[in-house]
Amino acid sequence: MMKIGQLANAAGCTTETIRFYEKIGLFPQADRTESNYRVYSKKHLDRLIFIRNCRALEMSHNEIRTLIMIADDPANRSEHESAHALLQSHLQHIDERIEELKSLRSQLVELQNHCHPTDDTCGILQELAEMEVDVKPAKSHV
Known about the structure:
Number of helices: 6
Strand order of the largest sheet: 1-2
Organism: Orbus sasakiae
Number of strands: 2
InterPro entries: CadR-PbrR, DNA-bd_dom_put_sf, MerR-type_HTH_dom, MerR_fam
Keywords: DNA-binding
Strand content: under 5%
Protein name: Cd(II)/Pb(II)-responsive transcriptional regulator
Domain HTH merR-type: 1-70
């Protein structure tokens, strides 16, 4: 059995992260001692590492929630197909983000090209003040 600080250290995260995952239902509630301390088991550590690894792959909380449901019912073959579809969708989102980042990089390089250190004015600042941008609404891949 571990206390929350020990669990956080073992999983390489913070106690706030654990409490947050508990609050949003990604992580099972811990048992409590008589003095009301949370106590965690190896099962909790395994789940936390699973969540951490998914987050490292930039999966959303909803994607992780779906994968947890699939992991909790390994005998259901259709759920495995759902995991494959989820990953395919996530890959598509990553490909879209790569294209967006390439475009962003091109814009920044173009902006950098406006820098003329011998000038008294900063071309970068002037361009930022005058440029027109295509503002897109934030979108989620969930």
